[in-house]
Write a structure and sequence with these properties.
The protein is an alpha/beta fold and 467 residues long. It has 16 helices and 14 strands.
Length: 467
């Protein structure tokens, strides 16, 4: 029994024994004191805290930079006086996102986010040009550049500051993205990472390759979006096929933000229109152990930033899909052209447009509620299945005569329209449904005096029957 229970819980020693991959020595060991302050922009951070009169500031660090949190804390504390600083480690969600939930626990006025832009290492221009020449030579493309003296090359590990980077973006000013992929070749400077994988996936329909240059190894190559992402697309298509056969969806809120509320409302509305059930869950960092506790959920929809939207579902009991894949799964006749979208704003804009077009088509064609009750074909099992309908369509409820005294809704075939419960249906399908109640079969027992004290030594060892 103990072996089965460990599958639904993480090990208690995992937080201590987990190994973090650090590709390079920390800046605190390789930089001087002046370079260290410039690398982490200590003086600029001090000015922001003092000028805006922040009394409580949270310093968020990813795991790979946590060893630099102490010298950064001491450097800032020496300059800001009595103002409070808090170090946020082991963030609730992905380290690339601002952990507003953890900051609210300490009632912080501001958050300083470290990582990503601070850990990017610069390379010399000569190495970049040499790597590109090697990658482009088979294509017959020549590169002409002006030699740059070494004295003008930026110092390694010093970031290029293009201006303040604050999280005050207006949702109306966000980029809508490109619908058909990039129209020009892309040059990626950096190691192989999840961001590069997402870039290749969203550039699948582009006729141009993506050129990659790794500053650490000094190598460059032309990576076609079709080659490395074909296997990933097959996995996503398998998850999409399983999502089309699901009737109960779980909406995973991986990074709660006010800007994601319209998308959450849209996802709930789309699932409700298809007469399916949805649950909204916030579990922090997603892992198979947490999601395994929700056995009645047949498919998960992850609402997260574009970098953390793709989850490999090999270890998960249920598929984990993106909002874009949900739109394809809920479509009556899905058509996928190879285009993949991870930008949530684009998904919301196109999803609302498709919902309006579907509603207009349904209103023109008349009542289509009977289509939801027809058996659907499952590509995974090769058989037809009867979908579960949990709620009546909104149109049938709106068309009900308010003066009618009927308390039970019926469909066009005069059958009772039941609003079922996903949890109750799942419990009824289980072999073990809990302890047997045996109501009225056993005589009631007498009330007994229980133990008192602590577990190391109870006061009354023997039970005494209360008269």
């Amino acid at each position: 029994m103990a072996v089965e229970s460990t599958a639904f819980s993480t090990s208690a020693e995992e937080a201590i024994t987990r190994m973090i991959d650090v590709s390079a020595p920390p800046p605190s060991q390789t930089l001087s004191a002046e370079q260290f302050e410039a690398y982490y922009e200590i003086q600029r951070t001090v000015r922001e805290i003092v000028d805006n009169d922040y009394h409580r500031t949270a310093l968020q660090f990813p795991d790979e930079l946590l060893h630099d949190s102490v010298p950064i804390y001491r450097a800032l504390k020496a300059e800001i006086g009595n103002r409070e600083l808090y170090v946020l480690a082991d963030t609730t969600y992905g380290s690339c996102c601002v952990d507003e939930v953890a900051a609210q626990h300490v009632d912080a006025n501001a958050i300083v986010h470290y990582g990503h832009a601070f850990t990017k290492m610069l390379t010399t221009l000569d190495e970049l040009v040499a790597g590109l020449q090697t990658a482009l030579e088979p294509l017959g493309i020549a590169i002409h550049h002006t030699p740059v003296p070494l004295k003008t090359v930026p110092v390694p590990q010093l970031p290029v500051k293009s201006g303040p980077q604050t999280d005050n973006a207006n949702p109306e000013e966000k980029s809508q993205g490109h619908s058909d992929g990039p129209a020009e070749p892309i040059l990626w400077i950096g190691p192989d990472s999840l961001t590069l994988t997402n870039l290749l996936l969203t550039s699948f329909t582009s006729p141009f390759p993506v050129y990659t240059f790794d500053p650490k190894s000094g190598t460059a190559q032309a990576a076609s979006p079709h080659t490395p992402t074909s296997r990933l697309l097959k996995k996503r298509y398998a998850a999409l096929s399983r999502a089309r056969s699901a009737d109960v969806f779980g909406i995973l809120v991986s990074s709660p933000s006010p800007t994601q509320l319209p998308l959450l409302r849209h996802i709930r509305a789309r699932i409700r229109e298809r007469r399916k059930k949805s649950y909204t869950v916030s579990v922090g960092k997603v892992n198979p152990q947490k999601l395994g506790n929700f056995a009645e959920v047949e498919c998960w929809v992850l609402v997260a930033c574009g970098e953390n939207s793709l989850v490999d579902g090999k270890e998960f009991m249920r598929p984990v899909i993106t909002p874009f894949e949900l739109e394809l799964a809920l479509a009556p006749t899905p058509k996928w052209t190879g285009r993949y979208v991870l930008d949530l704003d684009t998904v919301l804009k196109e999803g609302e447009a498709d919902a309006k077009a579907t509603k207009s088509s349904t209103d023109n064609d008349g009542e289509s509620g009977s289509d939801d009750e027809r058996p659907v074909f499952s590509a995974l099992t090769g058989t037809y299945r009867q979908p579960k309908l949990f709620s009546p369509p909104a149109k049938s409820i709106a068309s009900t005569d308010p003066s009618s005294t009927d308390v039970i809704l019926r469909n066009q075939d005069t059958a009772v329209t039941a609003a079922g419960s996903a949890a109750a249906d799942f419990l009824a399908s289980r072999t073990y449904q809990g302890l047997e109640q045996r109501t009225g079969m056993d005589s009631p027992s007498l009330l007994e005096q229980g133990r008192s004290g602590i577990a190391r030594g109870y006061k009354d060892v023997d039970h005494h029957i209360v008269p």
